[in-house]
Write a structure and sequence with these properties.
The chain is α/β, with parallel strands linked by helices. It has helices spanning 5-21, 25-31, 49-52, 75-87, 102-109, 114-129, 131-134, 140-160, 163-170; strands at residues 37-42, 60-65, 92-98, 176-183, 188-191. It binds cobalt (II) ion (CO).
Length: 199
Amino acid sequence: MGELQHLFDSNREWVKEITTSDPDFFKRLAKQQKPEILWIGCSDSRVPANQIINMLPGEVFVHRNIANQVVYGDVNCQSVIQFAVEVLKVKHIIVCGHYGCGGVIASVEQQAEGVMAGWLEHIKSVYDENQRELVQERDKEKMIDRLCELNVASQVKNLCQAEPVIHAWNTGQPLKVHGWIYNIGDGLLRDLDISVTGL
Ligand code: CO
């Protein structure tokens, strides 16, 4: 028995649970995926996209990285956006950050080294752009949480500059970009009210 046997066991249990109520679930899913949502979130293990919005396999296309960033030169994220918009024709892209994000904290405290340091530089620039507001906040935790929100707003802005998104808007393809934040402490999502529907 393998070291990770319990994962195979819970996989079998999960399949049984789903097929008990819907015997053709996987057969249907194997034919195609037609998600209407692209989720761009943090890799943090406490922020699992599907579970948070209570969605089944097939309902949400997901990209996750440290601190939910949409970086122009990141071919991984940019390919996900291209595929989601051009092929899947998702109707919504949600950038979802979360309070107390370790990546955001590390960028402020400049703890990261190596490739991580480079990755977190982008958040450092969000901090720099908003420094005047952020230094007013004496409570460190609150300052970080505000930076988590500002980071989402900045990534939404980056997303609106992505070529496939601009092309979709130019050609009248319905597509809405949203900025949300998740609270690990109570499991609740909040809309930051910065949605963008077009150019
Ligand atoms: Co995070």
